[in-house]
Amino acid sequence: MSNLVQALNSARVRGWLYQGLFLACALAVAWYLVSNTLTNLANRGVATGFGFLNREAGFEIGESFLAYAASDTYLKALAVGLLNTLAVSAAAVVLASVLGVLIGVARLSSNWMVGRFAAVYVETIRNVPLLLQLVVWYTIMNRLPSPREALEPLPHVFLSNRGMKFPVLAEHPGHGWALLALIAGIAAAVALVRYGRRHRETTGKPFPTVPLAIAAVILPPVAAFIATGAPLAFDLPVLAGFNFEGGGAVTPEFTALLIGLSVYTAGFIAEIVRSGILAVPQGQTEAGLALGLSPVQILRLVILPQALRVIVPPLTSQYLNLTKNSSLAVAIGYPDLVSVTNTSANQTGQVVEAVSMMMAVYLVISLCIAGFMNWYNRRVALVTR
C-alpha cells in the first residue's frame, strides 16, 4: 500500500494516469459513436463498408489529369478528384507566394503610388469573401467571347468562354530525357545554393550563386534536348467548327479557381511578408548600405533571410487554408475531391464512408504540408549556441 501511495504522489505517475484515463474515455466515446452509427444504418437497411469503391462509377468528370471514363470505378473517380485538388492547390500556392511577396514588398516601397496600390489591394482582397471572389472570376471567364471571336493576347494563345488554349510541345521520346536532365539540373542548383551559402559564411566573399544555379537548371535539359534530336515542334490550337482542336487547354472552372485562390491568399501573404520585413531591425539595412550593397542585394541577402524566421510559421497556416479553401470549387463546378465525393455519396447512399474518406484525405494533406513547412522552419531558424 505504501508503494502505491508513493507512486500516486509522483507527478510523473499521476500524469501518465490522467493521460491514460483521458485516452480510455476518448476511445469509449469513439466506440459508442461508431457502433451506434453502424447499428442505425443496419436497422435502416443501408449498406456499409468500402466495397462500393470497386463498383462502376457511371458518371463523367469534365476535367481530369488522368484517363477516366464513366465505366471506371468509384476509386478511380475519387483519385481523379484528389489529383484535381492537388493540381490547383499546388499551382495556387506558387502563384500566391510570388504575388504575396511582390505585394508585401511593394507596400513598403517609398513610391507613394506603389505603396498605396499595394495597401488598397490588401485591404480590399482580404475583406471580400473568397466564395464571392470565385463567383466573380467565374462570371468573368464565362463572359469572354465565343471561340470564333476568341481573344489572342499572345500568338496562338486564345481566350474564350471555353477556357484558354495554348501551344504545347509535340510528343517525342527525347522529352523524357530532357525532363530527367531538368530534375538533375534542379538538384545541382540546390547543391550550388548550399555551397554558395557556406562559402559566403566561411570566407565572407561573394559567390556567383544565381548565374551558376540558372545555368545548372537550363543547360542540362537543353543539351539533352539537342542530343536526343527532339524536334522543337509545337502542337498549335486550331479553330475547327465551334471550338479549338489541338494544343493544351485550361477550363474556365480551373482558371477561375486558380486566380481566385491565388489572389485571395496573396493578400494575407503580403501582410505576413510586410510584418516579417518590419521585424528586422533598421540597423541591418544601414549595415548593408555601409558595406556598399545595393537595395536589391540588401533585400535578398540581409532582410529576407532574417525575415523568414518570422514569415514561415504564419505562412504555413495560409498554405493550409488555401488547400482547404479549394473545396469551394464545388460552387463553380470544378470537379475537385469534394465534388466527386458528393456525387459518389449521392449515387451509392454511403455518405458516412465517403465523408470519412474525404476528411482523412484532407487531414493527410494538411499534415504533409505542416510537416514540410515545420522542417523548413527549423532549417531557417536562428540557432543560438
How would you describe what is shown here?
The chain is an alpha+beta fold and 385 residues long. It has three domains: 2-46; 74-170 and 233-380, MetI-like fold (Orthogonal Bundle), CATH 1.10.3720; 171-232. The chain is 68% helix and 6% strand. It has helices spanning 2-8, 11-43, 74-107, 112-126, 130-142, 174-203, 209-227, 252-278, 282-290, 295-325, 337-348, 351-380, and strands at residues 151-154, 157-160, 163-166, 168-169, 234-235, 238-240, 243-245, 248-250. The strands form three sheets. A four-stranded antiparallel sheet has the order 1-2-3-8. A two-stranded antiparallel ribbon has the order 4-5. The longest helix is centred in the first third of the chain and has 34 residues, at 74-107. The model has no long low-confidence stretch (mean pLDDT 84).
The number of helical segments is: 12
Identify the CATH homologous superfamily of the largest domain.
MetI-like
Main sheet attributes: strand count, strand direction, barrel closure: 4 strands, antiparallel
Q: Percent helix among the residues?
A: 55-70%
Topology summary:
Blueprint: H1 2-8, H2 11-43, H3 74-107, H4 112-126, H5 130-142, E1 151-154, E2 157-160, E3 163-166, E4 168-169, H6 174-203, H7 209-227, E5 234-235, E6 238-240, E7 243-245, E8 248-250, H8 252-278, H9 282-290, H10 295-325, H11 337-348, H12 351-380
Antiparallel strand pairs: 1-2, 2-3, 3-8, 4-5, 6-7
